[in-house]
Write a structure and sequence with these properties.
Enzyme class: transferase
Shape: globular
Keywords: ATP-binding, Nucleotide-binding, Nucleotidyltransferase, Transferase
GO biological process, one term: sulfate assimilation
Protein name: sulfate adenylyltransferase
CATH architecture of the largest domain: 3-Layer(aba) Sandwich
Largest sheet: 6 strands, mixed
CATH topology of the largest domain: Rossmann fold
CATH class of the largest domain: Alpha Beta
Family: Belongs to the sulfate adenylyltransferase family.
Order of helices and strands: HHEHEHEEEHHEHEHEHEHEHEEEHEHH
Strand content: 15-25%
Helix content: 25-40%
Number of domains: 2
Oligomer: single chain
Number of strands: 14
Length: 405
């Protein structure tokens, strides 16, 4: 049974959701964009197109976030001026902060300014875009400014140089339908409707299955000094394309769903983000904060080396351990978002999960299991210690391994 305190907080959440007047975090730029067209206008929008273009997985994520307002205040793909401004200054031409460029790419020489293109994805007609800008970007400058390196060892540098086309294009977008995904991605408006009114909403971003240490981290974040009582945490994993060796989105989604049922924590909200990771460290931290602000969050948990990556040759990190945290803190007030540092959590035989400083001060015996060792144990069918991973999550991962074999 829930304690009287838990029951009271649950009642507060329920009554808040039922409220008609919502007092939630203002979206970025103070306007939650919605580019989806009413049914009565969709046929005319399609008929007005002169070209058709099939989207990549990454571009489809961008189209979806544009259409539902995840990239508010953008109303389409950035034109050349907006692109250059974001690359050079991390700001839109209006002066508003924005972490990374959002552009449509092509190798098609014949597309020209003024063309209206029907954007398709896996047989769906997702959106239209009216091209108002087409240019050949300086990708080495984009790489250095946005990712801090021009080395193709960096996954985003590899992406812009080897996956993206020769040209970038900008233009206003009209949404027709959202991608049919194996995992549902609630829109910012949907998520906002599920949030309690007038309380802090702490966002937890991840791109991997959630283990015990992660769970301890984001539930403890609700008690951080700068988080008010009665707060909730939005567990908001990215389920779009990430790094090649990451667990597939559908498998990650299944682990989240079973964990949601297992913990049944009334202080948590769960939603999934159709976002394509860039592993851009500090710039990505800003991008994630802006997106989560649009989904109604007031706080963002930011970990050591957030969205970082390593050289595949030297093994060296592309970013400093605290670069993302420092950049986020520097811009937090301007963004209207507060940061919650990710605690360094460790498991001890004597006291279970504690912070690393407590473990050191009390000379507690720490148990550790590396990600590599965990994956080896999974593949080998060995028992996974429950202090490390949830049984429900392990079951899904074992099933996916069996299916792959």
């Amino acid at each position: 049974m829930l304690s009287s305190l838990v029951a009271s907080r649950c009642a507060h959440v329920v009554s808040a959701i039922a409220a008609t007047e919502r007092k939630l975090q203002a979206p970025h730029g103070n306007k939650l964009v919605d580019l989806m067209q009413p049914d009565s206008k969709k046929a005319a929008a399609i008929d007005s197109c002169t070209r058709e273009m099939e989207l990549s997985d990454r571009n489809a994520c961008d189209v979806e976030l544009l259409c539902v307002g995840g990239f508010s205040p953008l109303e389409g793909f950035m034109n050349e001026a907006e692109y250059e401004s974001v690359v050079q200054t991390m700001r839109l031409t209006s002066g508003l902060l924005f972490g990374l460029p959002v552009v449509l790419d092509t190798d098609n020489e014949s597309i020209k300014v003024g063309d209206k293109i029907l954007l398709t994805y896996n047989g769906q007609k997702l959106a239209t875009v009216e091209i108002d800008s087409k240019w050949q970007p300086n990708k080495p400058i984009e790489a250095m400014k946005c990712y801090g390196t021009t080395s193709i060892e960096h996954p985003a540098v590899q992406m812009i140089s080897m996956e993206r086309g020769k040209y970038y294009m900008g233009g206003k977008v009209q949404g027709l339908e959202l991608p049919k995904r194996v995992f549902p991605c609630a829109t910012p408006r949907d998520v906002r409707a599920s949030l309690p009114e007038g309380v802090d909403v702490v966002a937890f971003q991840c791109r991997n299955p959630i283990h015990r240490a992660h769970y301890e981290l984001f539930t403890r974040a609700l008690h951080a000094d700068n988080v008010r009582p009665e707060s909730v945490c939005l567990v908001h994993p990215t389920c779009g394309p990430t790094q090649d060796d990451d667990i597939p989105g559908i498998v990650r989604y299944r682990t989240y769903e079973v964990l949601k049922e297992e913990v049944a924590n009334p202080y948590l909200r769960w939603a999934y983000l159709p976002y394509s990771m860039h592993m851009a460290g500090p710039r990505e931290a800003i991008q994630h904060m802006i997106i989560r602000k649009n989904y109604g969050c007031t706080h963002f948990i930011i970990g050591r080396d957030m969205a970082g990556c390593k050289s595949t040759i030297t093994g060296e990190d592309f970013y400093g351990a605290y670069d993302a945290q420092d950049t986020a803190k520097q811009h937090a007030q301007e963004l209207g978002m507060q940061t919650v540092p990710s605690l360094n959590i460790t498991y001890t035989e004597e006291k279970g999960y504690v912070t690393a400083d407590v473990a050191a001060a009390e000379n507690l015996h720490q148990l550790k299991l590396s990600g590599t060792k965990f994956r080896q144990m999974l593949r080998g069918g060995e028992d996974i210690p429950e202090w490390f991973a949830f049984k429900s999550v392990v079951s899904v991962l074992r099933e996916s391994i069996a299916q792959a074999n």
